[in-house]
Input
Amino acid sequence: MQNTIPKTDILEKAYDPSDFRKMGHQVIDLLADHLEKVQTDREHPVLPFRNPEEELSYWKQDFASDSGILDVFKNILDHSVQVHHPRYIGHQVAVPALVSTLAGLMSDLLSNGTGVYEMGMAANAIEKIVTDFVAQRIGYTAETSGFLTSGGTLANLTALLAARKAKAPSAVWEQGHQEKLAVMVSEEAHYCIDRAARILGLGSEGIIKVPVDIDFKIDTSVLDTYLDKAKSDGFHVIALIGCACSTATGSYDDLEALADFAELNNLWFHIDGAHGGGVVFSKKYQHLTNGISRADSVVIDFHKMLMTPALNTALIFKKGENAYQTFAQKAQYLWDSQHTKEWYNSGKRTFECTKLMMSIKVYTILKTYGEEIFEKNIDKLYDLGSVFAKMVRERSSFELALEPEANIINFRYIKTDNKDLNALNNAIRQWLVKSGKFYIVQTTIGEHRYLRTTIMNPLTQKDDLVALLDEIEHIAETLI
Output
């Protein structure tokens, strides 16, 4: 790593607006050219795959070289997965609306932490507007409150902390654990729920994993059995968690039935809608979350279905007071007032104190295009999911794991005498990814390995999905 700027001028150059203007124009041109390339050239690699050691070696050499900053940016582009490529059909990461990336630039430039009002005046006010807007779409009333945080994992953990505060017999925050606490959740729930429960000190036995039915939804017919068993084992169950939708399968739990059960048994009802909760913005698909307004808390990722760069998650509480009570504590050097209900001091409600201005990324999308943009994006991606599932059904080489409700489709190649279909489908995906032609992932459902696509790019077309199945069949024939 070499520096050509005289040491006496380094700090001055680092804050020189004219240098920033010049460099900024060049970087924006580079990014715009990149977007034009990946969005129109289907032959451009979605992922230029290299093994970890090769990649590390490359960047060690780059770090030691005298390459200019534009070369560095170009190299990063060339060595990264291209989510704006129409044949990116992999992980559940939003393809960001471009205006939101400009808001990200402003957030990084201003570097206003939002934990304290004076440090984040605009962002805190905008965050309240954004979260109130989401609460309205969920169907909550004016007494709700929410905030943004860095990802669904942190949001779900915070929600379970609120559940513990509200439903545990003892004041755990002040006194520590006095009872054996537990939560009930689908066995298909995202791993972050399991992780959150362990962080809360519930242990393996305090995570009551309820089986799913044939559609991979939590089996509501056995909820009583599992609750009674937990009680007989000495557990005090504090919460029931519904999936909207399951990360692996895209299945939506019966939220109305879960709400009924939670109310009957005085449980906190939390909905992990990190991926699929965004359908509250879609008239066509909002029925999938019927009952969501009855939840005590809801998580929705903007960086999944809502076109926003990661990480950007809304956690909304039906009763606003629960948002404030979770982390009730004093911090005299931060806040003049120790009153808890201050929406404008977000550090009182989140793990994060120096939280970046994530609200402005959502706000700029809404101000530029209106909320209709969210509905159009969700409808396009979910519609494409149905189209792709139909295409899979029509080819004898494949089978679906289940009929999808979302834009998550699990399928596998089966046209072979090879009994080890798991190994074959694993090899197909590895070949496909290394080719750079498509990017998809995989999952295990039951004992079976499935190829898994999540259609996240609204620029993906039916022809891209046809080409994917054609390529998989070609790879399978080569391997067999």
